[in-house]
Prior knowledge:
alpha/beta, seven-stranded mixed beta sheet, 18% strand
Amino acid sequence: MYSMTQLVRRAAQTNGNAIATLDGERSQTWKEFLVRVAAFGGGLQKLGLANGDCAAILALNSDRYFEFLYSVWWAGGAVVPMNTRWSAAENAYSLNDSGAQILFIDRNFVPMLDAIRAKAKGVRTIVYVGYDDAPEGMLSFEELIAQNPPCEDAQRGGEELAGLFYTGGTTGFPKGVMLPHRALWYNAIVIAKEMRFDRDTRYLHAAPMFHMADFGFNTAIAMVGGCNVFIPSFEPEATMNAQETHRVNNMLLVPTMLGVILAHPTFKPERLKMLKSCIYGASPMPEGLLRQAMQVMPHVNFY
Length: 303
């Protein structure tokens, strides 16, 4: 039925003991991930999330961002990934437009929260995505998992809403694009096939997870039961460190990101020796930059 939860149920079934997520020193298998998703889904339903309801997230990349996505789908809801570059007014607009009553937020965006809530009166619950204690007035992400029994998979799919993905807002306020489970499911299977992903793929989330460019790859990795590696946001040294530490063999870079890495004083081709494939896009790739990348990293396939 083209359900997004089908991806993680299948990954746990066929590659359950393999690593699903790596974030710093934290890791979990696909079986462990599915247990957390089911419990988190139960917590979301206890908070009042019903079939078709939207839940929003304003946070940098992390394993918890990944858990949020599949837990909302497991509970029957739809996701609203919010642009981390937006102003408070734009964030409030998307919350009002989507009707999301639950907002997940990390430490980086807490200073903006009062300004957002002043204009987004419909938000009734704030869940803190950080790894330290939740600020006053917010629920703890980890406690939502620990304190709630798992719920059954809502198994929504097909043409039912999976998420609202907002445009860049270059000609006004962002516009919410409604994408059903079927569209995200097909996108995942096409990416997995075209990029030759398999259970040995280790993909680095360096591009922002709210953006559809990276979003399609998180679902494609789930499709094949591969491994997701996370850094909070793109930074050249952190990107190269993650590749060395976690043996990353696939990632997405926009041309500017690739140029920054090649120009970085600590860049050496051997630091990226495990990299097999690099996907680029979102803006035109200068021919000179592509030729340079292919010359210094002949072992990498550029897509």
